[in-house]
Amino acid sequence: MENVKSNKNQGTASELATKVNAGALAAISFAEDAAKGIGNLSHEDLALPFLKILGQLSPEVNKRDGKYVQGAEPGMIYNSVTGELFDGEKGIDVLPCHYKLEYIEWQDRGEGSGAPVAIHPSSSDVMTKTTRDGSYKDRLPNGNYIEKQLVTLLCV
Fold it and tell me: Is 152 helix (H, G, I), strand (E, B) or coil?
């Protein structure tokens, strides 16, 4: 690669051009740096925090529950990752950053693992395959039911 330098003589309009050889570009190998810089991450660093408004039956307010949080009272806001409690009457400032609609497929309570069977995107046609049952659940032909879930990501 070559660069050309221009030097102006003071007091005249003439220019002097000098040819300079800059050498080859540096070779960068990203493979050598793979996985460096993230060695200190733990599962807690990657956990998604949830803000939970505590109620009378929340395990965080029950002193006999293993999930009890010291100082937690109904009406407070609890951060599931940091363990912070916020005064529910004062509230907290949040900024909505992302919104997403999903359809969550579940098996009835007591059947399966208790985890969602599937998460369908809002563009899915899964709701066209359901019928409303007597308990107002949208049932699929396989017996599972669908719940509409609105996901909002917030900056706190």
Answer: strand
Q: Which residues contact 1 (CB under 8 A, 6 or more apart)?
A: 21, 22, 23, 24, 25
Contact between 92 and 151 under an 8 Å Cβ cutoff? The reply is no
Instruction: Show me where the domains of the chain are located.
Output: 93-156
Which tokens in the block code for residue 25?
A: 């570009």
Residue 16, both tokens: 């002097």
User: Exposure pattern of 37-57 as b/e (b: 16+ CB <10 Å)?
Assistant: eeeeeeeeeeeeeeeeebeee
Of 22-36, 80-94, 96-110, which gets the smallest average pLDDT? 22-36
Asked whether residue 5 carries a pLDDT value surpassing 70, the answer given is: no
Helices (H) and strands (E) in the chain, counts: 1, 10
**Which amino acid is it at 93?**
D
Alpha helices in 7-152 (DSSP H): 43-46
pLDDT tier at 10, thresholds 50, 70, 90 = low
